[in-house]
Amino acid sequence: MTDNHDGVMFVTGRFGVGGVERATILLANEFVRRGKSVCLVAFEYTDRLLLSTLDPNVEVVSLSFPVLSIKNICILREVVARKKIGLIVNQWALPFHLTMMLRLVAKKTAKILAVHHTMPNRNKRISGSAGLKNSLAIGVTKFSMVSITPHRN
User: Fold this and answer.
1) Residue 60 pLDDT more than 50?
2) Do the beta carbons of residue 60 and residue 38 sit within 8 Å?
3) Which alpha helices (DSSP H) does 39-84 contain, by range?
4) Over 90: is that where the pLDDT of 39 sits?
5) Strands 59-62, 85-90: parallel, antiparallel or unpaired by DSSP?
6) What is the per-residue pLDDT for 69?
7) Is the preceding peptide bond at 120 cis, omega within 30 degrees of 0?
8) Helix axes 70-83, 96-106, angle to 10 degrees
9) 79-to-9, 13, 42, 50, 143 alpha-carbon distances in Å
10) Do residues 5 and 36 make contact, with C-beta atoms less than 8 angstroms apart?
11) Ramachandran quadrant class, 84 (left: phi over 0; alpha: psi -120 to 50; beta: rest)
């Protein structure tokens, strides 16, 4: 990210009631407080009351289905350029079409951070494989413990 492209875009499928939405609002409001341009992008907004807690300087953008469409790509490219977005936070990490669209939009201007908000052992997409599910849960736990353990010299 360069200094002139330090805006943040949060992207999700459905923006409703939940912890991810509350965390997104807190982060978006804090980025605005720190002088960043911020926008929230979703395909569906189901809780307008929660949106009312968003700083008025956060731009709210609506996209339409199908996800990977020329219309959505054009909308996002315009927002990325106008708001000088340098970081795209993909809160709806799994759908391939969204990831592909964000890569087309970001090009070399913005970095994409994909966030998967769930526990691997509770994920419906991998719940059919008990071995994979258990391996992922153990691996994530080990990685989490390693990443929070301070280094000693």
Assistant:
1) yes
2) no
3) 48-51, 70-83
4) yes
5) unpaired
6) 95
7) no
8) 50
9) 9, 17, 13, 23, 35
10) no
11) left
